[in-house]
Amino acid sequence: MAIVGQGISIALGGHPALTGVDAELRRGEVLGIIGPNGAGKTTLLRVIAGLLTPDDGHVLYDGVTARQLGRHALARRIAFLAQDGAAAWSLSVEALVGLGRLPHRKPFGGASEADHATVAKAMALCHVATFAGRTLGTLSGGERRRVMLARALAVEADYLLADEPLAGLDPGHQLDTLQLLRTVAAGGTAIAVVLHDLTLAARFCDRLLLIHRGTRAAEGEPAIVLDDDRLAEAFGVTALRGSHESVRFILPWRTTTPSRSDP
Amino acid sequence: MRSRTGVEIRPALLLPVLGLAMLAMSGASLAVGYAQLPLGRALADAVSGQVSLPALVLLELRLPRAMLGALVGFSLGMAGAAMQGLMRNPLAEPGVVGISSAAALGAVAAFYSGLSATVALALPLGGIAGALLATLVLFILLGRGASTTTLILAGVALNSFAGAATALALNLAPNPYAALEIVFWLMGSLADRSMSHVWLVLPLMLSGWLLMASTAPALDALSLGEETAASLGFDLTWLRARLIGGAVLAVGSAVAVTGAIGFVGLVVPHLLRPLVGHRPGRLLVASGLGGAILVLVADLGVRLAPIRPELKLGVVTALIGAPFLFALVQRLRREAL
């Protein structure tokens, strides 16, 4: 079972954002979506989430389209973690995480015991249970990101789409978060995660999808996707490579061009 | 652990308490007035169907005033909470998309054209017509996929236009008395309304309340932003349509029968928000009850205050509400630091 996007093209505000992009999310796998700023990674994630309708191409969710599936069924199947982690009102952390259960509510129904248990589990997984009663305004940026991740996990969806979940996290919590995503994937969830840190992307993702100038530049195993030519072409960098604890790693080291100001 | 949402009261407790307070205020509104009313006898006569002066005062004067106070207050409070939830802004109020001023303009047009002197209920009907016209404009925008920001801007335009047209009517008023009458009506009042006003607005308000109440989970989800709300399965265009449709039905008919009663929709949601754990969905009904209580209390104040001619209700609610707004601004400034 999988989400399969084929030939996705979409223009935003008259400018082409994606052109003929294929993408596939498989259960039990972590797919890293990488690419330079403005490449179209977030747009691709939104299209896969069903939040944007492509001008051309299509996305199939376990073989059916978003329209056939319906908005509510789609919301139960896909959890979307947006880039900005703000909340409009001073809701408690527990109430915010509880919003992830909304797709499972019956009209005019309240939260069930099972909902509370799921929320508690998601908060514990993301290490935010200790501030369940506090509001986002009293938390640090990294703590807020973890609350929002807990909110997305509370959906208990088959697919988790996360847009830069590591932004603002300290190294310990970055590793924690990726390890957590791996654990969630091992439970059978398909995960697509937009990452900027190529070292972490290469280490924690099963496959990488490199988006460059709105097209799919490469897709496959990290070591294959992140070869020297592509690193130079897409990111304008060279990288150190090595191996530690029998895991290969890659470390962006130097820019290939003196100035990266021109696109 | 210290928590800022610690004053939250369970809905199972909060709503009955607010409901009882509203009933008590409605009872007080029935009991208080300019004429001494033997309430026991009036009630007995009214129930037994005997025509007597006390029964007439109760049924024809006090009852519609109390009912309209509760209905109008509930509409303003709930619509205020709904608009604040939709705009994700504590400074939004029911009139933010132009409904109130359009309804006021409609009523002024009925005044100005002389219809109100010849046709019964021309004023409220004109008000409702004005609100519906404004809705038409908003729904055309929504049909073209307008964002919430577009709706606010359209509201600014509608407010300015309706305000200017109302000023024009005053400017061109045939005589100073007509102008004065319009100005007084605009200040809002529950005096001299009848049961026919109640029956006119009741179905409109009820449908408006239901529409707004149906958006509660969507408003909760909207706390996380429009994109996340959409990912949780909520259709934002349909949400905006229900909220604006509901607010028009409730507030448009409120303004149409009582004139403009300001600040209720702004202040009440803000006061009650901590008690519902800052959840915009839960705030809807609580805010409606709170709005009803505030309008009933203000109207009692109007009648009990030894000031004649009677103060206008809109003046009193604004006099009470403005200091609260100052306090709100102060608090928001502190939170921003």
Structural key phrases:
heterodimer, A: 263 residues, alpha/beta, 3-stranded antiparallel β-sheet, 33% helix, globular, B: 337 residues, mainly alpha, ABC transporter involved in vitamin B12 uptake, BtuC, disordered N terminus
Outline the structure in words.
The complex is a heterodimer of chains A (263) and B (337). With 263 residues, chain A is α/β, with parallel strands linked by helices. Chain A has a single domain, classed as Rossmann fold (3-Layer(aba) Sandwich). Chain A contains 10 helices and 11 strands. In chain A, the strands form 3 sheets. In chain A, strands 5-6-7-3-8-9 form a 6-stranded mixed β-sheet, with helices on both faces. Chain A has a 3-stranded antiparallel β-sheet with strand order 2-1-4, covered by helices on one side. In chain A, helix 5 crosses helix 6. The model of chain A has no long low-confidence stretch (mean pLDDT 92). Chain B has 337 residues and is mainly alpha-helical. Chain B has 15 helices and no strands. In chain B, helix 3 crosses helix 13. Chain B is globular, with a radius of gyration of 20 Å. Chain B starts with 10 loop residues before the first helix and ends with a helix. The N terminus of chain B is likely disordered. At the A-B interface, helix 3 and strand 5 of A face helix 10 and helix 11 of B.
Could you give the order of strands across the largest sheet of chain A? 5-6-7-3-8-9
Instruction: Report the biggest beta sheet of chain B as strand number plus sense, adding barrel if it closes.
Output: none
Number of domains of chain A: 1
Q: State the low-pLDDT regions of chain A, or none.
A: none
Mean pLDDT of chain A: 92
Per CATH, the architecture of chain A is: 3-Layer(aba) Sandwich
Question: Biggest interface pair, residues each?
Answer: A-B, 37 and 29 residues
Which regions of chain B are unreliable across 5 or more consecutive residues at pLDDT < 50?
Answer: 1-6
CATH class of chain A: Alpha Beta
What is the fold-level CATH name, i.e. the topology of chain A? Rossmann fold
Subunit organisation of the chains: heterodimer
